[in-house]
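Notebook B, p. 112. Complex prediction, attempt 2.
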Amino acid sequence: GAVVSQHPSRVICKSGTSVKIECRSLDFQATTMFWYRQFPKQSLMLMATSNEGSKATYEQGVEKDKFLINHASLTLSTLTVTSAHPEDSSFYICSASTGQVNGYTFGSGTRLTVV
Amino acid sequence: GDSVTQMEGPVTLSEEAFLTINCTYTATGYPSLFWYVQYPGEGLQLLLKATKADDKGSNKGFEATYRKETTSFHLEKGSVQVSDSAVYFCALSGQTGFQKLVFGTGTRLLVSP
């Protein structure tokens, strides 16, 4: 079945530095990828929709300059948290669409801790 | 806009008890409906889905029926196990594969031996 690999699973960084999270579709081409953020004991908040070869579409309230999304190929999308601060600490999850109806596959998530 | 409402948790049950987690939705058109499960520290796994009215999704003993008349997609399991302890998310999406998922707030299930 469709597999999405998300890396790293955990990262700790210092305040002010940038962190890159990768999301790869291993056995299918993902024209569209979604990036979610999950706060403790809360649901998933969609941050942006990433389409291969074009600019990402950000949800209202998400800072485009802070959360840089790149979808350069059909198998790779990256989320870069720039100038991270403690309030950016969260669980980030990517999801890739296979293009089939209801074809969503989730990565295993990245726990980001900014100290 | 589209939305999903789930019962608040946590839901605490003893092993072998019957489980129901309520989910209702608001959407235009005919969305597809999903249940996802999240184990601690992990991403989401698709548990089951239904794409049209009266469809029943089932997997690992869990079932949910797409009820258009009541706009509901309640999750049920006849006999829960300790290993079922997790957070369960109800979600909906539009009819094309590229539309975003709209999630409910999640319901934590705790099953004790």
